[in-house]
Amino acid sequence: MSDARAAILGTLRRTRDAHPLTPPPSDFAPLAEKQWPPEERLPRIRRLMEAVHTEFLEATEADWPTVVTDFLTREGAATLLYAPETIDGAVLANAGPGGSLHLIPYDRPIDDFKQQMFEGIDAGLTGTLGAIADTGSLILWPSAQEPRLLSLVPHIHVALLRADALYDSFWQAMRDGRWADGMPTNALLISGPSKTADIEQTLAYGVHGPKRLVVVIVR
Amino acid sequence: MADHAAQAVNFAAASKAALQDSELRGNFRRAMDGLMTKRAVQFADGQEWHRMRALAASVRLRALSKLPELLEQLETNLTRNGIQVHWAATTAEANAITLEIMRKANATLAVKGKSMVTEEMHLNAFLEDHGIEVLESDLGEYIVQLDGTMPSHIIMPAIHLNTKQIAHLFKQKIKDAASTGEDAAALTDLARRILRQKFMNAGVGMSGVNAAVAETGTLCLIENEGNGRMCTTVPPVHIAFMGLEKVVEKLEDVPPIISLLPRSATGQPITTYVNMISSPRKEGEKDGPREIHVVILDNGRSSVYADPELRDTLRCIRCGACMNHCPVYTKVGGHAYQAPYPGPIGKILVPQMEGLAKRGEMPHACTMCNACVEICPVKIPIVEIMGRLRVEAVRPGTAVKDAGAQASRTEALVWKGWAAMNSSPLAYRLATTALSTVGNAAPASLPLLKDWTNVRSKPRFAAKTLHDLARKKGIPDV
């Protein structure tokens, strides 16, 4: 359909040149001004995310694997999918499963275990790149080591958040991290468990993605 | 094959029917009141609101000022990232492109996340005619599809139905629905179980695009349910549909839009998911589609772009807030418009896309109260454009398709008479004297008068004209 391409671009160029448009300058100050004192960021993130049913756990670098596995066992989860090639994944595998929880490594392409992924996994564990105070959002850049579906298909998504990786706004995170220099296959903001209000404005959680989002604050 | 786009529309008749439906009016009134209140909470800081919308408007205007260049840059960067770009001048071309991709992928089932562009295309009906099943996965769209109707709101497609009606629909159409009762959570869970099977088995996933970044070749999608992520991650092929105006220049231009869209639409600070896609599955990655296609659709947008005044229509970021605040939309509901885009934005966009012969009624269904303009996050002068389209509808011209389609001899004659009466003092005096003495004798059932007096009492002419009264007070005629 290259005819369509030429015709569309031709029309746009011709009519724009006939009536050029001078846009006003973009003043990003209202985004730059979205700032919170460091000690207020985490409480704000927590408040905003709890308002949409996110759950929080507190842990340290030493005990987070136990905190996670204890929690999931208590909640009746039987299986935890994790990313064995990440540092966090290696730490979890080293600590070993707690109680009756089975650790399942995401170590092959989804095409080889789609059925199990959809029907046999209770929880998935991922890291995060940090969180955003303005909106209460986690930042994730899934990768070859930590695939995209880990945070989507399992009924419970457990996400590790380092307490020192906090940003004021999405705009700040994007600028500080120089995202525009190289975007990953997929970049995500996640601000709660999956939800819908499509049935008469009644909020219901867990429509297609995770029913529960559990953020583990690691200090 | 049925021509789904060519169905006759009768906005006036549909509005009349909607106004008689008290359950429908109740559903809309409740929903719109709730949405307006929630939005207002998000923009409690008036300063922040004014500065943010100025920023968002500048982002959209800058994109429009460089539209052809940015579309080329977008294409270059998407292609470099391994995403295939297709251009479609018409919805028929876009449908044909989609069918070809589906056939090459040997796919007979597609799952779709919300995409208003595919509503413009009537894509589901087109593919079904070719033996391909397309399942809507956004819960609201899924409900509407089960019901065999179309979305009544661009953000909340099933807002015209209440829980009871949806429970009844599920019971009729889904065999395991017997136990769900009228509980929104149970109904949602049932849809989850059904759709998860479909996500797993679909050969193609389809989505819309909220913003496409020229600088990086990135597609941004926002959503709450996770179906958008499912459609763009699980099936081996992903097709994204975008109107050609959806491009922005820089990655940095995305946060202002993400900040205003969910707050304006549903009063939430952000959607559950902001999904930015820049490439298909790379070597070594374990999931994600192996192919991504982007279909860039014109469908009349380049003609909208051609006129410097009408061009502002293309700033729209599809938040739907104008619908939520529109006194007409709230009363007649979304279906009365019989168009992919209802409400204020629909009333200016659809006539430009489909022509004033078919859609000339739409710009008239507006009280010009300006509520939509006040809350538009990108400051589209909706009411000014509405006025312009009213003129275009009765005056033959070239700016809008079928301009002059509504030109009426009677109306032209009435205005000619009006002008003549008002430009001659003698004619004016004669006419006003005549109306004040015998005007009230005109029966309410006169052809033109009847449209007004059907639902209102007939206005009465005063016994003395304003001129008479002024003269009596000694004010000279001059």
From TrEMBL, chain A:
Residues in LUD domain copies: 45-218
SUPFAM superfamilies: NagB/RpiA/CoA transferase-like (SSF100950)
Coiled-coil stretches noted in the UniProt entry, renumbered to this chain: none
Gene3D superfamilies reported for this sequence: NagB/RpiA/CoA transferase-like (3.40.50.10420)
Transmembrane annotation, as ranges: none
PANTHER family: LACTATE UTILIZATION PROTEIN C
Name of this chain's protein: Lactate utilization protein
Source organism of this protein record: Azospirillum griseum
Automatic annotation (TrEMBL), chain B:
Protein name per its UniProtKB record: Iron-sulfur cluster-binding protein
Xref: InterPro entries: 4Fe4S_Fe-S-bd (IPR017896), 4Fe4S_Fe_S_CS (IPR017900), FTHF_cligase-like_sf (IPR024185), Helical_ferredxn (IPR009051), LUD_dom (IPR003741), LutB/LldF (IPR004452), LutB_C (IPR024569), NagB/RpiA_transferase-like (IPR037171)
Pfam families: Fer4_8, LUD_dom, LutB_C
Keywords: 4Fe-4S, Electron transport, Iron, Iron-sulfur, Metal-binding, Repeat, Transport
Record flagged with keyword Metal-binding: yes
Domain 4Fe-4S ferredoxin-type: 306-328, 358-386
Keyword field contains Cytoplasm: no
Secretion signal, residue range per the UniProt entry: none
GO molecular function terms attached to this record: 4 iron, 4 sulfur cluster binding; metal ion binding
Any single biological process term in GO: lactate metabolic process
